[in-house]
Amino acid sequence: xxxxxxxxxxxxGDNKSLLVMMFxxxxxxxxxxxxxxxxxxxxxxxxxxxxxxxxGGAQTPAxxxxxxxxxxxxxxxxxxxxxxxxxxxxxxxATTSVENELYRITFTNRGGxxxxxxxxxxxxxxxxxxxxxxxxxxxxxxxPLSLYTYDSALTSALxxxxxxxxxxxxLAAPASLTFNYSDGATTVRKTFSFDETYVMHADVxxxxxxxxxxxxxxxxxxxGDQDNxxxxxxxxxxxxxxxxxxxxxxxxxxxxxxxxxxxxxxxxSDTYFAAIFLPDSPDTATLxxxxxxxxVAKTIRRTGLGVGGSSKGAIEVPILGAALGDTSGRxxxxxxxxxxxxxxxxxxxxxxxxxxxxxxxxxxxxGPIGKYLFLSLxxxxxxxVASWPGSWGWAIIILTVLINCLILPFRIKTMQSGLKMxxxxxxxxxxxxxxxxxxxxDPKRSEMNVEIMKLQKDNGVNMFGGCIPTLITxxxxxxxxxxxxxxxxxxQAHWLWLPDxxxxxxxxxxxxxxxxxxxxxxxxxPSPGVDPQQQKMMAFMMPAVTGYMTWNYASGLALYWTIxxxxxxxxxxxxxxxxxxxxxxxxAAKRARRKAGTPTTISGKR
Length: 606
Prior knowledge:
Subunit structure: Interacts with the Sec translocase complex via SecD. Specifically interacts with transmembrane segments of nascent integral membrane proteins during membrane integration.
Membrane topology: Multi-pass membrane protein
GO molecular function, one term: membrane insertase activity
Helix content: 25-40%
Oligomer: single chain
Largest sheet: 10 strands, antiparallel
Structural class: alpha+beta
Number of domains: 3
Keywords: Cell membrane, Chaperone, Membrane, Protein transport, Transmembrane, Transmembrane helix, Transport
Main location: membrane
Number of helices: 15
């Protein structure tokens, strides 16, 4: 957004101020890109090393192709059979679906695991209801709610065995679904309970010859909305202990490592969705971290910010997962699988304390500012424009107007401070002239600074007055930058010609309008004392920098920035016509004529 520059610094001072502002803008932008890449790296290069695979992995489609019930019994019974115990297994593969207003989950009795987890209120990139299961990753590494053990043969056997379900067909929540299996030695019982929310409850117990087996309930990794580089880069492992949360980027997740509790909650997430376990017994919970690499060269969408790897070679991305168990051998936990929507997350509490899932939302370096920006945006949306077409876009516009109205008094103060500085500029020049014969290292130079500071103080000039709008608007700008890529509410939110406010403008209309408006901001904002050539350079450089920043980034940021520029132009045009603005122009004209050697007519001050 537009800033008021200090128009009274001597010889090129305004140019230095502009250069500093541009340097700060570019530095913070690329610093945020580095911070984001450091904590959520982009897709791995094809030559990157693979992390340790999940113990036993998961069956490939060929491996999972319906073995006979006898074959399943034999695979599990390889661990040692106890003759005389009854075997429990199904004769054929079957599916059972559980449904409420929010989701439709389809289970298969092969492994008693989830084939699809469709979220009814969210769409994928093709406009179809979003399947939260990353099918490609699941076929290779395992399906959600499968079992993870520290015996690879047992893990594979339990994932391919045919369980006996308590119900088949379709169930409407609230409901309960149990899967039982036994080969005569190893016995498994998996019970899932559902209500009207995104949270379900899992109760899993595995025994071998009557002794408990450490079997963890598993979300092997990935989410169905991951179809481009940015989505994979947002993968992370989320852990909360003793009321403090931690978000681990892929490079910090060592596949196969186990962490011991206590855990308030733990799981995995990407930018917009999460699968989180909330154990019934936090103190005895354990978490296995899962990290695999997947080649998505044939399936990734090559739009947006680009992807790692070449179009002809492999493109490997991190697939993070988590499995939760209990030291007792019996795992009882709630499971949240759904959007990282603030209103949903803040209503889900950990067992035994008040901590919610809200910290799953990570707004980055400017987190506190980004959080309250979004809460303000959400309030405007819900109470003013919820029924309007393109409501989130209009909410951004209204919020931008309100922010600029709040900043207006500071801009006026800055202009007043600049005028005071202009009035005493001749006296400041005279002081500097007296001391110019001294070198910069001469102690006499400190006396010059003392005199200038006293002159400013006697005339009510605040040397930092011109920085106030910048100190307010830059954090807001970069908080908006990080907030837009973090909130699921803006995912696929359209406005006029924009199909998704969290994605780049496909026609680049907003970036072009923003470049033009940024040029007009530079044109209308007073910058007396600046060399005309330098002023032209800044007038073109600043729009070029801001245009580059918004060309391939969220169109919501370009909308916020463009509206802010248009408001700044209107405000500046009005203020330039006030007595304050006229006096600034008159003083600036006198200085320009004096610098050019043109005689000036001295007139009294108003």
